[in-house]
């Protein structure tokens, strides 16, 4: 029951962020939320496309030829996902890094994912989280390392939660 309450709070925070952030719509048609990764040393601002439905999460960043340096995609789930659950790179043209997050936005795991050039999705590897998670953030390959972001750091959503850090 406590997990459900925390998930509801995180969902409410996320909904408030997308509604009041003045975020623009990317060419994908998905809403964009402003956020930041908070490390012990700094705050890294990002703009994240929000994928909440099964269809949006399934498509993800497939077919994209580029992604802005501070842009990515936030995949949000209604329930806690198993450590065995993962992402795959079928029809994804960009190398990506993915951070798997707990219900309070803590980075629990980071994986590097390579594009799969096979036309057969069954030949594309998946990248299991290795930890339970409720959301995940895909960014360009090398983003997390280049910005000193690692497990134990946090994603905060909404400009108001990133100012003054």
Automatic annotation (TrEMBL):
Alphabetical list of InterPro entries matching this protein: DUF192, Saro_0823-like_sf
Position of the signal peptide: none
Name assigned to this protein: DUF192 domain-containing protein
Species, as recorded: marine sediment metagenome
């Amino acid at each position: 029951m406590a997990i459900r309450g925390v998930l509801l709070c995180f969902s409410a925070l996320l909904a408030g962020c997308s509604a009041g952030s003045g975020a623009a719509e990317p060419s994908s048609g998905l809403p964009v939320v402003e956020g930041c990764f908070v490390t012990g040393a700094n705050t890294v601002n990002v703009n994240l496309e929000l994928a909440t439905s099964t269809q949006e999460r399934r498509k993800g960043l497939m077919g994209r030829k580029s992604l802005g340096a501070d842009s990515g995609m936030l995949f949000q789930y209604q329930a806690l996902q198993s450590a065995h659950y993962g992402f795959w790179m079928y029809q994804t043209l960009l190398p990506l890094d993915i951070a798997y997050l707990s219900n309070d936005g803590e980075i629990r795991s980071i994986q590097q994912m390579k594009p799969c050039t096979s036309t057969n999705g069954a030949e594309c590897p998946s990248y299991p989280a290795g930890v339970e998670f409720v959301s995940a953030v895909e960014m360009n390959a090398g983003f997390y390392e280049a910005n000193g972001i690692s497990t134990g750091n946090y994603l905060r959503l909404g400009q108001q939660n990133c100012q003054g850090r």
